[in-house]
């Protein structure tokens, strides 16, 4: 006799029939009139779920205008004329390319999502016609390490674009690499390209870079092709961790106002294709004091006159400039294409001249003396009648005095008058 726990063939058959009936009933209800195509809840994995439970949208969805690769954790939305950041970005994305679109404004919290894009590390927004980046535009991206905003006509870059818009003291940004190549707005948006417009643009970029301590961890900064004329004072003061700075293909004419002293970790500084004419001792001394730095200076219009003497002497001794053998004179004409390393002090026409500070002192002294002389002449003119009378009195007094001397001389010279004078005395 079978045990109590054993089942016969008839019992197993009834169980299989019951399961088949359940599957058929669910399938028939799903295809009933008025219902849509079978949903993903009918997949075999969904049967253990309780009936009527709502399923969340799949986490690996891809925006319609983009191409996604979950294996590479990359999303590309390139040349799709997007006007805003897609709302349905997959949370697995690590590399996001949003290039060649029509996003003119990047508002605060543009990448805020649920669940958050916590793994997004590289964001490329180049070539999007961006004109404005608002404060806190990159909030809710705790893993963002690389940001590329190149080739956007940025006319409004908030000082808090790379920090928390709601914090009074900005929290440190995770950014390690910031690329801002060719972000110069068109001329009609910067006072027709005037000097004031360029200064305003440079100040705007500088304000975003030194907002609090948000970019203390930044290691690479690229600012090429922005037509910078001067670097604003304290431009690099809040970037102590910087290792690579690219300023090539600008219009820099001087580095007098910027200090590199606090960039103790700087390894490469690119200044090629600018308008530098000479580098002064203060800048050269700062570079020499940085242990790891290498400075690239090729394709600048160096002026080989007496002011170049200190720089030439420094180049011959230093190893800071790897391309120093390629540096050549641009002016004057007779020195064109002469290598700086081959110049001697006699080639630079260093005539003895006064230092500029002493020249200024002498000019000021000459102006003061001229002013005193003018005042003296004015006093003489106003008192001309009194001076004339005084001169006449002096002339009469001198005449009387000279007549007395003349009379005594005549008496002493004539013996008769001398004897007469003696007898008269007797």
TrEMBL record:
Q: List residues of the LRRCT domain.
A: 300-351
**Bias kind Low complexity: ranges:** 42-54
Q: Where is the region Disordered?
A: 42-62
Q: Which residues form the LRRNT domain?
A: 61-95
Provide this UniProt record's keywords sorted from A to Z: Leucine-rich repeat, Membrane, Repeat, Signal, Transmembrane, Transmembrane helix
Note whether Transmembrane helix occurs among the keywords. yes
Pfam families tied to this protein:
LRR_8, LRRNT
Per the UniProt record, which residue ranges are transmembrane?
362-382
Could you tell me which InterPro entries the record lists for this protein?
Answer: Cys-rich_flank_reg_C, Leu-rich_rpt, Leu-rich_rpt_typical-subtyp, LRR_dom_sf, LRRNT, Wnt_signaling_inhibitor
Give the domain of life: Eukaryota
User: What is one process in the GO biological process aspect for this record?
Assistant: negative regulation of cell population proliferation
Signal peptide interval: 1-36
- Coiled-coil stretches, from where to where? none
Report the GO terms under cellular component: axon terminus; dendrite; endoplasmic reticulum; plasma membrane
State the PANTHER family in the record: LP06937P, TROPHOBLAST GLYCOPROTEIN
Q: What is this protein called?
A: Trophoblast glycoprotein
State the organism named in the record. Answer: Nannospalax galili
């Amino acid at each position: 006799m079978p045990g109590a726990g054993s089942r016969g063939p008839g019992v197993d058959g009834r169980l299989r029939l019951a399961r088949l009936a359940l599957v058929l009933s669910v399938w028939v209800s799903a295809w009933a009139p008025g219902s849509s195509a079978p949903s993903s809840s009918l997949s075999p994995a969904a049967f253990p779920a309780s009936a009527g439970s709502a399923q969340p949208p799949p986490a690996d969805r891809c925006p319609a205008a983009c191409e996604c690769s979950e294996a590479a954790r990359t999303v590309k939305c390139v040349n799709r004329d997007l006007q805003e950041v897609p709302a349905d970005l997959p949370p697995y994305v690590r590399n996001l390319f949003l290039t060649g679109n029509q996003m003119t404004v990047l508002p605060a919290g543009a990448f805020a999502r649920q669940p958050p894009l916590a793994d997004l590390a590289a964001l490329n927004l180049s070539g999007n016609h961006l004109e404005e980046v608002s404060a806190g535009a990159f909030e809710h991206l705790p893993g963002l390490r690389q940001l590329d905003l190149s080739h956007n006509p940025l006319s409004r870059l908030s000082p808090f674009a790379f920090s928390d818009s709601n914090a009074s003291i900005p929290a440190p940004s995770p950014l390690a690499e910031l690329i801002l190549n060719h972000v110069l707005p068109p001329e009609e948006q910067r006072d027709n390209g005037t000097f004031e417009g360029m200064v305003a643009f440079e100040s705007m970029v500088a304000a975003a870079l030194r907002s609090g301590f948000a970019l203390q961890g930044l290691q690479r900064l690229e600012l090429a092709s922005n037509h910078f004329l001067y670097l604003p004072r304290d431009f690099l003061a809040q970037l102590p961790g910087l290792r690579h700075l690219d300023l090539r293909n600008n219009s820099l004419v001087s580095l007098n106002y910027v200090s590199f002293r606090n960039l103790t970790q700087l390894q490469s500084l690119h200044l090629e294709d600018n308008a530098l004419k000479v580098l002064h001792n203060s800048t050269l001394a700062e570079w020499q004091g940085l242990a790891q730095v290498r400075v690239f200076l090729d394709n600048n219009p160096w002026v080989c006159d007496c002011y170049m003497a200190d720089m030439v002497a420094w180049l011959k001794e230093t190893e800071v400039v790897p391309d120093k053998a390629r540096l050549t004179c641009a002016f004057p004409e007779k020195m064109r294409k002469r290598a700086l390393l081959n110049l001697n002090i006699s080639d630079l026409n260093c005539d003895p001249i006064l230092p500029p500070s002493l020249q200024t002192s002498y000019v000021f002294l000459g102006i003061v003396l001229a002013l005193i002389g003018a005042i003296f002449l004015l006093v003489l003119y106003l008192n001309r009648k009194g001076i004339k009378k005084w001169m006449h009195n002096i002339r009469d007094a001198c005449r009387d005095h000279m007549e007395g001397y003349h009379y005594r001389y005549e008496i002493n010279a004539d013996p008769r008058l001398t004897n007469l004078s003696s007898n008269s005395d007797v």
